[in-house]
Amino acid sequence: MLLSLLIFVVPKSKSPSYNLYNYKMSLVDTVPAPRLIFVSGSSLYTSLDSKRIEDSLHVHVINSGLHAGIGLKYTIDDIAPRVKSGDVVAIGAEYPQFYTDAYGNKTLAVILYYNGWQNLGSLNLKQWLNVLKGIPYIIRVNMFEGLLAHEILGKTSNPLNAINKNGDEILHWTIDADGTGIVSGASKEDLPLDTLFCQYFVKKLQEIEAKGARVVMIPSVIRETAFKYEQKRAHEIDAFFRRYGYGYNSKPENHVMPDSCAWNTDYHMNYRGVERNTDVLIQELKSFL
Protein backbone atom coordinates (compact mmCIF):
# COMPACT_ATOMS: atom_id res chain seq x y z
CA MET A 1 0.00 0.00 0.00
CA LEU A 2 2.87 2.35 0.81
CA LEU A 3 4.51 1.59 -2.53
CA SER A 4 1.19 2.25 -4.26
CA LEU A 5 1.03 5.67 -2.62
CA LEU A 6 4.49 6.47 -3.97
CA ILE A 7 3.25 5.71 -7.47
CA PHE A 8 0.70 8.49 -7.28
CA VAL A 9 2.84 11.03 -5.38
CA VAL A 10 6.14 10.84 -7.28
CA PRO A 11 6.13 12.52 -10.74
CA LYS A 12 6.63 10.39 -13.84
CA SER A 13 10.03 10.38 -15.47
CA LYS A 14 10.18 10.85 -19.24
CA SER A 15 13.39 8.90 -19.74
CA PRO A 16 12.52 5.16 -19.35
CA SER A 17 12.11 3.39 -22.69
CA TYR A 18 8.66 2.19 -21.58
CA ASN A 19 7.40 5.67 -22.51
CA LEU A 20 7.93 4.63 -26.13
CA TYR A 21 4.75 2.57 -25.89
CA ASN A 22 2.73 5.79 -25.83
CA TYR A 23 4.59 7.10 -28.87
CA LYS A 24 3.92 3.92 -30.80
CA MET A 25 0.21 3.98 -29.97
CA SER A 26 0.08 7.63 -31.05
CA LEU A 27 1.37 6.49 -34.44
CA VAL A 28 -1.42 3.92 -34.67
CA ASP A 29 -3.89 6.69 -33.78
CA THR A 30 -2.62 9.39 -36.13
CA VAL A 31 -0.84 7.93 -39.18
CA PRO A 32 -3.42 7.91 -42.00
CA ALA A 33 -4.73 4.61 -43.34
CA PRO A 34 -3.93 2.37 -45.02
CA ARG A 35 -1.08 1.29 -42.74
CA LEU A 36 1.03 -1.83 -42.35
CA ILE A 37 1.13 -2.33 -38.56
CA PHE A 38 3.68 -4.80 -37.19
CA VAL A 39 2.77 -6.42 -33.86
CA SER A 40 5.29 -8.29 -31.71
CA GLY A 41 7.27 -8.05 -28.51
CA SER A 42 10.82 -6.73 -28.88
CA SER A 43 11.77 -9.02 -31.78
CA LEU A 44 10.43 -6.79 -34.55
CA TYR A 45 11.17 -3.67 -32.48
CA THR A 46 14.87 -4.47 -32.87
CA SER A 47 14.84 -6.38 -36.17
CA LEU A 48 13.08 -4.19 -38.77
CA ASP A 49 13.99 -1.38 -41.12
CA SER A 50 10.50 -0.01 -41.67
CA LYS A 51 11.69 2.80 -43.94
CA ARG A 52 12.92 0.24 -46.47
CA ILE A 53 9.59 -1.55 -46.28
CA GLU A 54 7.75 1.74 -46.84
CA ASP A 55 9.89 2.56 -49.86
CA SER A 56 9.49 -0.92 -51.36
CA LEU A 57 5.80 -1.54 -50.69
CA HIS A 58 4.55 2.07 -50.82
CA VAL A 59 2.53 1.90 -47.63
CA HIS A 60 2.77 3.65 -44.25
CA VAL A 61 4.57 1.30 -41.83
CA ILE A 62 4.20 1.34 -38.04
CA ASN A 63 6.39 -0.87 -35.86
CA SER A 64 4.35 -1.24 -32.65
CA GLY A 65 6.63 -3.85 -31.08
CA LEU A 66 8.39 -2.98 -27.82
CA HIS A 67 8.64 -5.68 -25.12
CA ALA A 68 7.29 -9.23 -24.78
CA GLY A 69 6.75 -8.53 -21.08
CA ILE A 70 3.72 -6.40 -21.97
CA GLY A 71 2.00 -9.59 -23.03
CA LEU A 72 0.37 -10.32 -26.37
CA LYS A 73 -3.10 -10.14 -24.85
CA TYR A 74 -2.76 -6.55 -23.69
CA THR A 75 -1.07 -5.60 -26.96
CA ILE A 76 -3.83 -6.96 -29.19
CA ASP A 77 -6.55 -5.61 -26.87
CA ASP A 78 -5.02 -2.14 -27.16
CA ILE A 79 -4.34 -2.16 -30.91
CA ALA A 80 -7.54 -3.81 -32.19
CA PRO A 81 -9.82 -0.80 -31.48
CA ARG A 82 -7.32 1.54 -33.18
CA VAL A 83 -7.16 -0.40 -36.45
CA LYS A 84 -8.79 1.27 -39.47
CA SER A 85 -10.35 -0.02 -42.66
CA GLY A 86 -7.68 -0.78 -45.25
CA ASP A 87 -4.97 -1.53 -42.69
CA VAL A 88 -2.85 -4.67 -42.73
CA VAL A 89 -1.92 -6.00 -39.29
CA ALA A 90 1.16 -8.23 -39.40
CA ILE A 91 1.49 -10.42 -36.31
CA GLY A 92 5.11 -11.45 -35.73
CA ALA A 93 4.98 -12.38 -32.05
CA GLU A 94 7.74 -14.44 -30.46
CA TYR A 95 6.81 -18.12 -30.08
CA PRO A 96 6.82 -18.21 -26.24
CA GLN A 97 4.06 -15.58 -26.25
CA PHE A 98 1.61 -18.31 -27.25
CA TYR A 99 2.83 -20.60 -24.47
CA THR A 100 3.90 -18.77 -21.33
CA ASP A 101 4.03 -15.03 -21.94
CA ALA A 102 0.60 -14.03 -23.31
CA TYR A 103 -0.35 -12.21 -20.11
CA GLY A 104 2.92 -10.36 -19.63
CA ASN A 105 4.95 -9.87 -16.47
CA LYS A 106 6.01 -6.93 -14.30
CA THR A 107 6.62 -4.94 -17.47
CA LEU A 108 2.87 -4.70 -17.99
CA ALA A 109 2.57 -2.77 -14.73
CA VAL A 110 5.13 -0.18 -15.90
CA ILE A 111 3.41 0.23 -19.27
CA LEU A 112 0.08 0.84 -17.54
CA TYR A 113 1.72 3.35 -15.20
CA TYR A 114 3.16 5.39 -18.06
CA ASN A 115 0.08 5.21 -20.30
CA GLY A 116 -2.27 6.41 -17.56
CA TRP A 117 -3.72 3.00 -16.64
CA GLN A 118 -5.52 2.61 -19.95
CA ASN A 119 -7.69 -0.43 -20.70
CA LEU A 120 -7.78 -1.74 -17.15
CA GLY A 121 -11.16 -3.23 -17.94
CA SER A 122 -9.59 -5.60 -20.46
CA LEU A 123 -7.28 -7.25 -17.91
CA ASN A 124 -7.96 -10.77 -16.73
CA LEU A 125 -6.93 -12.25 -13.38
CA LYS A 126 -3.46 -13.31 -14.55
CA GLN A 127 -2.76 -9.84 -15.84
CA TRP A 128 -3.96 -8.21 -12.61
CA LEU A 129 -1.63 -10.44 -10.61
CA ASN A 130 1.27 -9.37 -12.82
CA VAL A 131 0.33 -5.73 -12.27
CA LEU A 132 0.25 -6.16 -8.49
CA LYS A 133 3.60 -7.95 -8.51
CA GLY A 134 4.98 -5.20 -10.71
CA ILE A 135 4.30 -2.31 -8.31
CA PRO A 136 7.83 -2.41 -6.78
CA TYR A 137 9.24 -2.52 -10.32
CA ILE A 138 7.35 0.68 -11.20
CA ILE A 139 9.07 2.42 -8.27
CA ARG A 140 12.48 1.15 -9.33
CA VAL A 141 12.07 2.16 -12.98
CA ASN A 142 10.53 5.55 -12.35
CA MET A 143 12.52 6.73 -9.33
CA PHE A 144 15.95 5.19 -9.88
CA GLU A 145 16.28 4.37 -13.59
CA GLY A 146 14.20 7.43 -14.46
CA LEU A 147 14.11 10.47 -12.18
CA LEU A 148 17.48 9.87 -10.50
CA ALA A 149 19.41 8.86 -13.61
CA HIS A 150 17.80 11.31 -16.04
CA GLU A 151 16.13 14.29 -14.43
CA ILE A 152 18.62 14.61 -11.50
CA LEU A 153 21.98 13.24 -12.70
CA GLY A 154 21.46 13.65 -16.45
CA LYS A 155 22.99 10.28 -17.30
CA THR A 156 20.31 9.10 -19.72
CA SER A 157 18.80 10.63 -22.86
CA ASN A 158 15.32 10.95 -24.32
CA PRO A 159 14.12 7.44 -25.33
CA LEU A 160 12.86 8.86 -28.63
CA ASN A 161 16.53 9.20 -29.63
CA ALA A 162 16.71 5.40 -29.81
CA ILE A 163 14.09 4.98 -32.54
CA ASN A 164 13.17 6.27 -35.99
CA LYS A 165 9.83 7.79 -36.93
CA ASN A 166 8.36 4.35 -37.67
CA GLY A 167 9.17 2.94 -34.23
CA ASP A 168 12.25 0.83 -35.08
CA GLU A 169 15.05 0.66 -32.49
CA ILE A 170 18.11 1.97 -34.35
CA LEU A 171 20.87 2.65 -31.80
CA HIS A 172 22.17 -0.91 -32.01
CA TRP A 173 22.50 -0.80 -35.80
CA THR A 174 26.10 0.37 -35.42
CA ILE A 175 27.02 -2.41 -32.98
CA ASP A 176 28.70 -5.35 -34.68
CA ALA A 177 27.70 -7.94 -32.07
CA ASP A 178 26.62 -11.53 -32.49
CA GLY A 179 24.27 -13.40 -30.20
CA THR A 180 26.02 -16.71 -29.75
CA GLY A 181 25.26 -16.85 -26.05
CA ILE A 182 23.07 -19.24 -24.10
CA VAL A 183 19.58 -19.91 -25.45
CA SER A 184 16.99 -18.15 -23.31
CA GLY A 185 15.12 -20.09 -20.66
CA ALA A 186 11.76 -19.31 -22.28
CA SER A 187 12.84 -21.23 -25.37
CA LYS A 188 13.71 -24.33 -23.33
CA GLU A 189 10.52 -24.49 -21.24
CA ASP A 190 8.46 -27.55 -22.12
CA LEU A 191 4.93 -26.23 -21.71
CA PRO A 192 1.73 -26.85 -23.70
CA LEU A 193 0.30 -24.38 -26.17
CA ASP A 194 -2.04 -21.97 -24.39
CA THR A 195 -5.06 -22.91 -26.48
CA LEU A 196 -7.46 -20.76 -24.44
CA PHE A 197 -5.43 -17.67 -25.19
CA CYS A 198 -4.98 -18.71 -28.83
CA GLN A 199 -8.77 -19.00 -29.20
CA TYR A 200 -9.13 -15.56 -27.65
CA PHE A 201 -6.51 -14.24 -30.05
CA VAL A 202 -8.44 -15.64 -33.02
CA LYS A 203 -11.51 -13.68 -31.90
CA LYS A 204 -9.47 -10.48 -31.76
CA LEU A 205 -8.15 -11.11 -35.27
CA GLN A 206 -11.72 -11.63 -36.46
CA GLU A 207 -12.69 -8.32 -34.83
CA ILE A 208 -9.88 -6.60 -36.72
CA GLU A 209 -11.02 -8.08 -40.03
CA ALA A 210 -14.62 -7.06 -39.32
CA LYS A 211 -13.39 -3.43 -39.38
CA GLY A 212 -12.24 -3.82 -42.99
CA ALA A 213 -8.59 -4.54 -42.20
CA ARG A 214 -6.56 -7.61 -43.10
CA VAL A 215 -4.44 -9.84 -40.87
CA VAL A 216 -1.29 -11.75 -41.75
CA MET A 217 0.58 -14.03 -39.36
CA ILE A 218 4.34 -13.99 -39.95
CA PRO A 219 6.78 -16.36 -38.24
CA SER A 220 8.99 -14.78 -35.62
CA VAL A 221 12.52 -13.77 -36.51
CA ILE A 222 14.89 -15.91 -34.44
CA ARG A 223 18.52 -17.00 -34.47
CA GLU A 224 19.44 -20.47 -35.69
CA THR A 225 20.59 -22.04 -32.41
CA ALA A 226 17.41 -21.00 -30.59
CA PHE A 227 15.17 -22.24 -33.41
CA LYS A 228 16.35 -25.79 -32.75
CA TYR A 229 14.43 -25.50 -29.47
CA GLU A 230 11.53 -23.48 -30.89
CA GLN A 231 10.94 -25.39 -34.13
CA LYS A 232 8.25 -27.65 -32.67
CA ARG A 233 6.44 -24.68 -31.17
CA ALA A 234 6.54 -22.72 -34.41
CA HIS A 235 4.84 -25.50 -36.35
CA GLU A 236 2.37 -26.18 -33.54
CA ILE A 237 1.32 -22.52 -33.53
CA ASP A 238 0.99 -22.57 -37.31
CA ALA A 239 -1.17 -25.71 -37.22
CA PHE A 240 -3.49 -24.26 -34.56
CA PHE A 241 -4.13 -20.95 -36.31
CA ARG A 242 -4.36 -22.55 -39.75
CA ARG A 243 -7.56 -24.25 -38.60
CA TYR A 244 -9.09 -20.77 -38.32
CA GLY A 245 -7.58 -19.36 -41.52
CA TYR A 246 -4.66 -17.58 -39.84
CA GLY A 247 -1.71 -19.88 -40.47
CA TYR A 248 1.73 -18.40 -41.04
CA ASN A 249 2.20 -16.78 -44.44
CA SER A 250 5.46 -18.69 -44.95
CA LYS A 251 7.57 -21.43 -43.42
CA PRO A 252 9.02 -20.53 -40.01
CA GLU A 253 12.43 -21.60 -41.35
CA ASN A 254 12.36 -18.60 -43.70
CA HIS A 255 12.71 -16.30 -40.70
CA VAL A 256 15.62 -18.12 -39.05
CA MET A 257 18.81 -16.05 -39.04
CA PRO A 258 22.40 -17.24 -38.56
CA ASP A 259 23.75 -16.73 -35.06
CA SER A 260 26.11 -14.13 -36.51
CA CYS A 261 23.04 -11.98 -37.27
CA ALA A 262 21.84 -11.90 -33.65
CA TRP A 263 22.48 -8.95 -31.39
CA ASN A 264 21.93 -9.65 -27.67
CA THR A 265 19.13 -12.24 -27.46
CA ASP A 266 17.60 -15.02 -29.54
CA TYR A 267 15.02 -12.63 -31.01
CA HIS A 268 17.04 -9.40 -31.45
CA MET A 269 19.03 -8.96 -34.65
CA ASN A 270 22.10 -6.80 -35.33
CA TYR A 271 22.02 -4.72 -38.50
CA ARG A 272 23.03 -7.66 -40.69
CA GLY A 273 20.03 -9.49 -39.27
CA VAL A 274 17.82 -6.40 -39.65
CA GLU A 275 18.69 -6.27 -43.36
CA ARG A 276 18.06 -9.97 -43.92
CA ASN A 277 14.81 -10.02 -41.97
CA THR A 278 13.57 -6.89 -43.76
CA ASP A 279 14.40 -8.39 -47.17
CA VAL A 280 12.45 -11.55 -46.32
CA LEU A 281 9.41 -9.57 -45.17
CA ILE A 282 9.42 -7.33 -48.24
CA GLN A 283 9.33 -10.34 -50.53
CA GLU A 284 6.68 -12.16 -48.50
CA LEU A 285 4.40 -9.17 -48.05
CA LYS A 286 4.70 -7.84 -51.60
CA SER A 287 2.17 -10.28 -53.06
CA PHE A 288 -0.06 -10.10 -49.97
CA LEU A 289 -0.35 -6.32 -50.21
Describe the structure.
- This protein has a single domain (2-288), classed as Rossmann fold, CATH 3.40.50.
- It has twelve helices and eight strands.
- It has helices at 2-9, 20-30, 42-46, 50-57, 72-79, 106-114, 125-133, 135-152, 185-188, 195-210, 224-242, 271-288, and strands at 35-39, 60-63, 88-91, 214-217, 222-223, 256-257, 262-265, 268-269.
- The strands form three sheets. The chain has a four-stranded parallel beta sheet, sandwiched between helices. Strands 5-6 form a two-stranded parallel ribbon. A two-stranded antiparallel ribbon has the order 7-8.
- The relative contact order is 0.17.
Summarize the topology.
Elements: H1 2-9, H2 20-30, E1 35-39, H3 42-46, H4 50-57, E2 60-63, H5 72-79, E3 88-91, H6 106-114, H7 125-133, H8 135-152, H9 185-188, H10 195-210, E4 214-217, E5 222-223, H11 224-242, E6 256-257, E7 262-265, E8 268-269, H12 271-288
Parallel strand pairs: 1-2, 1-3, 3-4, 5-6
Antiparallel strand pairs: 7-8
How many helical elements?
12
What is the structural class?
Answer: alpha/beta
The quaternary organization reads as: single chain
Radius of gyration equals 18 Å
- CATH fold name: Rossmann fold
**Overall number of strands:** 8
Biggest beta sheet summary: 4 strands, parallel
SSE pattern? HHEHHEHEHHHHHEEHEEEH
The strand order across the widest sheet is 2-1-3-4
Helical fraction: 40-55%
**Global morphology:** globular
CATH architecture: 3-Layer(aba) Sandwich
| First-to-last CA distance | 51 Å
CATH uppermost class: Alpha Beta
